[in-house]
Amino acid sequence: MAHLNRLRNWIPSLLAGSIAALLLAYLSAGEIYNYHDTITEHSLEDTDLIVCLAGGRGRITAAFELWNRYWERHQATQGPLPMLYFAGMGKKISWNSLTKQTPKEILSHITPSSLMIERESFNTKTNALYLIEALKNHPWNKMILITSSYHMRRAQIIFEQTFRNQGHFVAIGTYSVYQEPFTHSDWKKSLLGVKVTLSEYLKWVYYKNFSS
After folding, report:
1. Residues 112, 82, 88, CA angle at the centre, nearest 5°?
2. Could you tell me the CATH number of the domain that includes residue 151?
3. Residue 207 falls inside a structural domain
4. Cβ contact 148:59 at 8 Å
5. Does a structural domain hold residue 152?
């Protein structure tokens, strides 16, 4: 009985602490959007590889469009043309099914040899691990990471940690996709925006502070 009474006395404190922690996370969650992409609509940096993390809205189309900008530059200046790499596409994906998500104006000049499709990974960590397997056979030193804006900070830190732990040193640039039904400035206005942003913030804090 005494043990039960002590537990009852602790419950209000535990609830108050949990509410305070959740409120603090809510107020801080917008930090995941505080970064600047290295690649924008108006600037391109030389790179060996464009890595698209599949699974988010608009990412695949954005990857094709970014690759096409490099192709257009290559046609004009003979600058380097990067490989296009899709991570975590699932075992059923094929070149034919992927072309259904390719803008029509790009289909005339992109070929299967322009890209790689990785079908085995199932989360951001395994996206990075399977890419390392590909790195063993290709001299890639620079990459551009494509993912949704809410996912970018966590994805970048996971890739950096994984590369470092495996002894691979690849410079990572970023190119964010902004096609989710909420933006970095209005995520608090929808339940989905709050849920996704808060979840990503907590995961990012964990990887930043407790994972290596």
Report:
1. 60
2. 3.40.50
3. no
4. yes
5. yes
Does residue 146 belong to any structural domain of this protein? yes
Overall domain count for the chain: 1
147 found inside a domain? yes
| Domain region containing 73 | 39-181
Name residues whose C-beta falls within 8 Å of residue 153's C-beta, 6 or more positions apart in sequence: 32, 35, 204
- pLDDT tens sequence for the chain (212 residues): 556 566 566 666 555 555 655 666 678 999 999 999 999 878 899 999 999 998 888 999 999 999 999 999 999 988 789 999 999 999 888 888 888 888 889 999 999 999 999 999 999 999 999 999 999 899 899 999 999 999 999 999 999 999 999 888 899 999 999 988 888 889 999 999 999 999 999 999 999 888 87
Angle at CA of residue 184, ends 59 and 35, nearest 5°? 80
Answer left, alpha or beta for residue 55, where phi above 0 means left and psi between -120 and 50 means alpha: left
pTM greater than the 0.85 cutoff? yes
